[in-house]
Amino acid sequence: MSIAINKSKCVGCGRCIEVCPGNLIKLVAEENAVCSRPEQNGEATQPLRKAVIRREKDCWGCTSCLKECKTGAIAFFLGADIGGRGSVLSVSDKGDIRTWTVTAPDKSTKTIVVNRKESNKY
Q1: Whole-number Å distance between alpha carbons of 119 and 42
Q2: CA 71 to chain centroid
Q3: pLDDT truncated to tens, each residue of the chain (122 aa)?
Q4: By Cβ atoms counted within 10 A, which residue in 29, 103, 119, 121 is the most buried?
Q5: Is this model's pTM higher than 0.85 or not?
Q6: Which own/partner pairs from 21-25 qualify as long-range (CB within 8 Å, at least 24 positions apart)?
Q7: Cα–Cα distances in Å, from 27 out to 35, 47, 82, 103?
């Protein structure tokens, strides 16, 4: 089990790092890319940083980072060992609505839509 991080979608917010219980994600500077971030003494140009997974084999599949990523930059591989046959799981949020999307190797998709306010009703 492992995650994949799409660098083109990653904004370098670091939310995934904060929630990863295994400390498996880090931010690295992108070559030749800079962003302007406000600092205490005005504006300064800093290297643009993106999330990367340190050791894919150490990921135990808790999906904490996947649920915390607001840009959809993180996907989770659903391997054959858990019945996913190589599918990829991604999550997106729009207000209280969380959409889980499973994309199969043949590009077919299945979605599950959950209203977060009603997710624990029995």
Answers
A1: 43
A2: 7
A3: 689 899 999 999 999 999 999 999 999 987 655 554 444 444 556 678 999 998 888 888 899 999 899 898 999 988 766 666 788 889 888 899 989 999 988 999 999 999 988 877 76
A4: 103
A5: no
A6: 21/62, 21/64, 22/58, 22/59, 22/60, 23/54, 24/53, 24/54, 24/55, 24/58, 24/59, 25/51, 25/52, 25/53, 25/54, 25/65
A7: 14, 11, 29, 27
Distance CA 64, CA 47 (A): 26
Alpha helices, H only, the chain: 15-19, 64-68
Q: Do 117 and 110 contact (CB within 8 A), yes or no?
A: no
Cβ(51)–Cβ(72) under 8 Å?
Answer: no
Joined tokens for residue 77: 């591989």
